[in-house]
Amino acid sequence: MAYKDEMSAYDAEKLDFEAAFGKFKDKRLAIYGIGRMSATLLPELGDYRIVGLLDRDSSNWGKVIYGYPVLSVEEAEKEADLVIINTAESYWNVIWNRISGISIPVYFKNGVLAKKEEKEIFFQNLPYWNGSYEKLQKEVLECDIVSFDIFDTLLMRTAMDPIDMFHFIEKQEEEIFQGEDFFELRKKASAAAGENATLTDIYSKLQLWGRLSHGQAAALKARELIAERKNFRARKDMVCLLQKAVEKRKEVYLISDMYMESDYLAEVIYELAGVKLPRSCFLISSERKKQKKDGTLWKEYADRIKGRGKAIHIGDDKKADEIEPRKMGIGVYRIWKANEMLANSSLADIRSLVCNPYESLLAGHIMERLFNSPFALNQMKGKVQIDRLRVMGYCVLGPVIYIFLKWLLEQAEKKGICDYLFVARDGWFLLQDYEYLVGLSEKKNAPKGYYLGASRRLVSAASIRTEDDFEKILLLPYRGTFSQLMEKRFNVRIKEGENANKMISLPADAEMIKKLSFPYMAQIMTEMKEERENYQKYLEQFPIEKATAVVDFCYHGTIQYYLQKIIGKRLDGYYFFADISSNNPYCRENMFPCFQDESDKEGKESEIYKKWILIESFLTAPHGMIQYVDKNGEFVYGRQGRNQIFFQERIEINEGVKEFIRDMVKDDVDRCLSADHAMIRFVRKAYGCMMEGDSVLGAEIRKYFYFDNDMVHDRELNIFE
Known about the structure:
Elements: H1 2-7, H2 11-21, E1 28-32, H3 36-41, E2 49-54, E3 64-65, E4 68-71, H4 73-79, E5 82-85, H5 92-99, E6 106-108, H6 133-141, E7 145-148, E8 155-157, H7 164-172, H8 174-177, H9 182-193, H10 199-209, H11 214-231, E9 232-234, H12 236-247, E10 251-256, H13 262-273, E11 282-284, H14 285-288, H15 296-305, E12 311-315, H16 319-327, E13 331-334, H17 338-343, H18 357-371, H19 389-415, E14 419-423, H20 427-441, E15 448-452, H21 456-462, H22 467-474, E16 478-481, H23 482-490, E17 503-506, H24 510-517, H25 521-539, E18 548-552, H26 558-567, E19 572-575, E20 591-593, H27 607-610, H28 612-618, E21 626-629, E22 635-637, H29 642-645, H30 647-666, H31 669-672, H32 677-691, H33 699-702, E23 706-708, E24 716-718
Parallel strand pairs: 1-2, 1-5, 2-4, 5-6, 7-10, 7-12, 10-11, 12-13, 14-15, 14-18, 18-19, 19-20
Antiparallel strand pairs: 3-4, 8-9, 16-17, 21-22, 23-24
């Protein structure tokens, strides 16, 4: 029977529930959640003592839904022995935080007992957070002489470890080395040249050991300087302070333990900081043959400025920029570099995820955006909180979308894909970002991308040819009135008095719904035939061939499945994550997920799956769900929801996503980086860290994200409430 085939996708949920809670059959259970998961699960729990449901909306308290009363928290405490949160994992912590004061045990749907996580928050008590830009500026203005460290103070790199740049040079210039390891040669040459060596000294050694010509060595040196320059970023607060010191006619010096020559550094400072300093203002260890870290360079500096006024030095290194200058009587204000800020922040776990230079570069870009200011975390005492839309797009969504698009391009090259159909509202921004990446990276043979108007409602209804097809669509989970069901799914309006306002719950009311809908069968089949013909005409404008593939967000592949039925051709589908298990009755054999391990057939171990709801809420179009195509070939849309009301905010977020893509290409990362298993795993875990527990997103941003599903119910929920 079609209904049973459709419901096979939910059998695993029942089995999981049995495994987790079979031991509690003698207990009184309250189920938190009145959405699809409860709708399909509750009819299967006849041998459990379910006393009621819980929902955040107080207007539902006292109602009967799915045959059970909706209880308040206080009522649940009296009536039940325990609560089970039966929702998508994305909501677990939100719900638990909402009801954590309840006096009875609360379990997540995987059987784990919910409890308050006592995370180590030592970093919030660090003295560093008491500093501020204003305090530092006051100290600088009170001094006559001001010196700055350069790297990690005035400038920062978009790599967690500077030596990771050598891997990219090796990748880009591999024909020169013919199998030699540039990374190792570069480190060896640096060590042999000594601590006070210039870059010229280092490349003299590298030329010898790498058996390079003078021209090749010079070209490599230039390549290193270009690569470094592309990855330098000004730390804006510190550059502003430098500018102010120059403006106030302070005596200014830049002091660094560095192999780069001062002429090059002066050019970089001028380009990034807008400050032109004479070479005499640069005290560079490789040129002075003295070091900050051993105090010899500080002695020279102290002798130079002796008797000329009060001095202060700003730098990031504990020994080189604080301990040693203090020995010479020089005032010090130590700031933290980005790595130190990360290590002492709420996102410290991300550090352990970085396992290769490509991950280092990707994480480094996020750090540059979050920790550019040494004081970025001071107000929140180490807790990272994103309160700007573009920063959210860049740091949270940018890496996920970028790697997914890189993966699409690599899949196309491997499998000979000619065209990608970005379907449903999920494809609206994805197509824009895909075309942006292809254009920037100048990939001439990349598949053409198309936005294909589609929705579950449109393609499933347009695929109906038989009563069996109709029943399959009719009995999908839904909660609302009978008239709402008929209009939303089949564009059939029910007259008042004909059970129009009868509240229904599918699949529990399946037999009743089949009886109620029977009188409208002929009207429905006529409507569906017209919709199918109109949609088929619309599809004729697309080059749907054997080498055409569908791109969607997730999960069962229903749009892909029904499109295949309509056009009579097989289409491969590419997803962020997907159910490719035997429980999926749709397209599991030709669905290819990006962000999940091969052994994880349902994708449930993926951090993208666990925190999918933010991405789903972002990936939408400026219009409501496409209902059908009319006879003029125009789309007929459903209602606009809050995600559409806040669409301008999504455009701003996507500008941040594009900025991340731009930086990956501009810094030459894109040419070297592959969306392989390691990189995909890193990105999904980093996203998981970002969204773990108390999300990094600020309160102002959280109000823009809603979950809606017109195919299942008529409610909109803010995903963070």
